[in-house]
Amino acid sequence: MISSVLYRQKKLKEEDASLETLAAARKESDTVMWVNLSAPTKEEIKQVLEQLFGFHPLAIEDCVSDSPAPKLEPYDEYIYLVMHAVVETTNHAFEPVELDIFIGKNYLVTYHREPLPFIDRVMVTLAQTPDQTISGPDRLAQHVLDAMIESYRPLMENLRCQVERAEEGVLGEITAAELFPKIVSLRKRLSRIRRVMQPEEDVIDELCNKQQPLIGKAIAPYLRDLSQELHRIDAQAGAWGEQLILSFRLYLNKTTHEANEGIRVLTGLTAVTFPTLLVGSWFGMNFKNMHELKMPFGYPLAIALTVLLTGATWLYMRRKGWI
Predict the structure, then answer these.
(1) Which H/E stretch holds residue 38?
(2) 190: nearest Cα among 232, 168, 170, 160
(3) With CB atoms counted within 10 Å of each terminal CB, which end of the chain scores lower, N or C?
C-alpha cells in the first residue's frame, strides 16, 4: 500500500496524492513529500522505488531483502538508512521489523514489509495538524525516528515488569523449574534488544555528526537526543540482564542455605538420638559376665542415663542454635 503527504511552501497541501502528482512535485523547489510503502506489491515497488525516485539497484535490493543490521549508506542525491523497529507478538514477545528510509533533497521514502503502527500514527498526526511547518525531509525523518524509538517504551516497560516478577519469585516460593526458563528467556530478549539498539545508535550518531548535507543543523540536536535515548535503553537492558544474573546467584545461594539448614536439623536430631542408641546398645549386649545386667536397679539406671544424656544433648544443641 502506498500512502503519502505532500507539503508546498512548508504547509500540508495534499494527502495520498497520485504518482503523477508526486512526480510533478519532485521537480518543484518549494515542495516536500513523504511517501510510505507498507507491505507493497512488486508493481508498487517498481512504480515508486524505480520509476518515481530512481534509487540505485543495490539500495532497492537491500529494501526487498532482509538486512541483518542497521546501517547508513550515503548516495549522491540521497541517504539510505536501514533501521529495525519492533512489533509485539504473542506472549509479550517481540519481533524486529526492518524499516528502510530514503532521505532526499525534497522527499522522504519509507519502506517496510509489515505494517508498523507508529508510522500510521505519524501520518495521522501530520494530517490532523495541517498548520504544522515542515521545513524539509530531514524534519519528517526525525518525526519517524522519534516515533520508532517511542514505540520501544511499551516493550521495555513489559520487560521491566517481568524482571521484577522474576526477582520477587527468587525471594518467594518459586521453583527452579519455573525460574530457570524464565531467566533464560528474559536474558535472550534483552540481548536481542541490545543487538538492535547498539547499531541504531551508531547509525543516528553518524547521521547527525558527520556533516551530512541533507541533514540541517536545526535537526542535528534532535537526532543527538534520539541517540542518547537509544543509549539509555541499551544501558537499561544491560542493567536488567545483570540483575537477572544476580537474582539467579541469589536463588542458588538461597537454595544452598535451605539445604544446609535441613542438613543441620537432621544432624542435630541424629545427635539427640545418639545417647539412646549408646545406652541401648550397651545394655543390649549378651555377654554372660555383665554385672550391669544383674544389678537390681539396672533397668531404671539405663532409663535414667538415656533421659539424662538425651536432655543434655538437646540443651546443648539448642544453645548452639542447631535445632
Answers:
(1) strand 31-38
(2) 160
(3) N
Domains annotated for the chain, with CATH where assigned, are 1-132 (3.30.460.20), 256-320 (no CATH)
Mean pLDDT for the stretch of residues 294-316 = 74
Specify the DSSP class assigned to residue 106: S
At which residue does the C-alpha cell 535414667 appear?
A: 304
Rounded distance between C-alpha atoms, residue 37 and residue 114, angstroms:
10
Task: Give yes or no for a contact between 106 and 172, defined as CB atoms under 8 angstroms apart.
Answer: no
**Which residue(s) pair with 8 in the sheet?**
11, 31
Is the pTM higher than 0.85?
Answer: no
Cell 512489533, residue?
A: 87
Distance CA 108, CA 136 (A): 9
Cell numbers of 93, please? 514477545
Please state, in angstroms and rounded to a whole number, the distance separating the CA atoms of residues 224 and 215: 12
Single out the residue of 219, 25, 78 nearest to residue 63, CA to CA: 78
Cα 62 to chain center, whole Å? 26
Query: pLDDT of 148-170, one tens digit each?
Result: 998 888 888 888 888 888 888 87
